[in-house]
Write the structure tokens for this entry.
Amino acid sequence: MKMAESLEKLHNRILSDAKLKAAGVVEQAEDKSKQVLDEAQAQARRDANDILAKASLEAESIRRSILSSRIRGNRLRILDEKNKIVQSVLKSVEQGLSDIVDSDQFESTLKRFVAEAVEAVGTDNAVVRIGFRNADKKSLQSLGQSLPKGTKLLVDETAIDDLGGVVASDPEGKMIFNNSFRARLERLDNQLLTTISSTIFGE
Amino acid sequence: MSGIEAVRKIVETEAQAKRIVEEAKSRAQEILASASEEARKIRQASTAEAEQRRVEMLRETREKAEADARSSDVETDSLLESYKKLFENRKDAAAKKAVELILGN
């Protein structure tokens, strides 16, 4: 009877140890399982954040690519149109200067241009060349009477620099002052563009 | 109970105990395999969702940029139209001022 009891206890003990060990194995697996899932979720969040961060950069790049090319194109269209307008006004200005011969301010303007040119050359015996389209040669030559003594007047058949004007030099031609309309247009280029732009565009 | 019978019973019990532990190990393997599979699905689902959001984000960005670009086109067209009107209205005044500047009046 005693041996049977001892055997039963041993039987129960062996099974109890086995169940305990089994429970430990399963519990360990469950802990490991929870750890794997936690790590997976954390990694999934990191992966998703990486994808979205890259997407954000990609989106900014796409936005810039679409907008910058269009905005650049539109800026060019605006500059092109402004330039066309300014060039068109400049054509009118050139025409207006060419036509000044027919206006009543021609004579006074011519005298002023000559005086400026002679003063710029700074010699007593300057050579003054004048030439305007459709100008009456006789009236141009009459200008000679108003020039300082020693100044030589030459009247060209054609307009100086296409638009007309005055060129003064010393007798050797070393010192030249070009006071043609074209030369004045070039000298006053910046002021001219500012004047035209501010008048047309109010800038 | 004879000694042989007792030994046989202990051997049987040991075998039963071994089975219990082996079954637990097997169960543990299943738990880990299942967790591994679930982890894979979690990452896959998260990546798929993020990719979907990425596609949506890029689509919205492209549409917004295109709309802004069209708006810039419209603004530019309007500005160019106003330039043409300004030119027509002010070209004579501009040319007159420019001529006066060149003449030095």
